[in-house]
Amino acid sequence: MLRNTLKTLLEPWGPTGNEHHVVETIKTLLAGHVDSVEVDALGNLIVEKKGTDPDGRRIMFAAHMDHIGLVVTSIEKEGFLRVMPVGGINIYRTDARHVVFENGVEGVAAIQPVKEGHPQFSDLFVDIGAKDKEEAEKMVQVGDMCVYAPTVFDVGKYRVAGPAMDNRTACAILVELLLYAENQKHTIIGVFTAQEEVGLRGATVAAYRVNPDWGLAIDVTGTADTPEVKFPAVNLGDGPAVKFVDRSMVASPVIREALFEAAEKAGVKMQREVLPYGGTDGGAIQRARAGIPTGTLSIPCRYIHSACETVDIRDMEDALKVLLQFVDL
Description:
Blueprint lengths: L1 H9 L9 H11 L5 E4 L5 E5 L8 E7 L4 E7 L5 E6 L4 H4 L2 E5 L4 E6 L12 E4 L5 H5 L7 E4 L4 E3 L3 E4 L2 H16 L6 E7 L7 H10 L3 E8 L19 E5 L7 H14 L4 E4 L6 H6 L7 E7 L8 E4 H14 L3
Parallel strand pairs: 3-12, 3-13, 13-16, 14-15
Antiparallel strand pairs: 1-2, 2-12, 4-5, 4-9, 5-8, 6-7, 6-9, 7-8, 10-11, 11-17, 14-16
């Protein structure tokens, strides 16, 4: 069940560059359902499920495992931690937030009062309950990372909120595709990528190594269905979206058209997305080697890069239906 797979994948701690717990969870979920499994030097998990057509395409599906976090830069004599962002952290969304480190140490991220102007990340600290620097250093070290604590909750009947929806949402969809696709025409190369949040790094090396015929990133996108938000023109609960343009790429027409064809076969309504900011692993795949036809299938998500990213399970289910048709076109 997609909701259960999503919640399972939201549990592992996994900020950028530290995706190993997510890797092990996905390996467990896919055990016995794929033809090969490997982890490359950058931490990407690459799995393959062979298609039935010897002349079929090798399609790389990318879903990044990492999510945004904070890294400790120094420890003050009073025991407070100074931190900097790893990925696109919004300082206001981080104030008074529950955070957790890999070893289980928990804390509160807070913004100190500023005398003038707006707070900067130099004004953010994490309180782990230590009385002084010596005690704090027994709990965490400079270079350790923390993330928003993985509190996940239902919002109404179909919606789920929590941190790391970006992009465990896509990881869950790709896991389910690999579980349910049987005797599909084309070979599925599922790449659960590392370090997307700091420049599409995992997808860059994976696409070079895999060298697929087609590429498709699966990722979340913002919505314009909350008060005073106008872009992108995507609504939560109205289905997945076919990306046309973002800051990382102009999607290849052949992939866009194939997604719409697959959606028609699946009886799924698709939205059209133009994103005036951000990017996805698709931007890295498209530019690999001599160029690869690439697109992105987007899952609407409210409050991206917060502790309460919100998705609609129906959008995820429809995305899976589209992908099951896409691998058989």
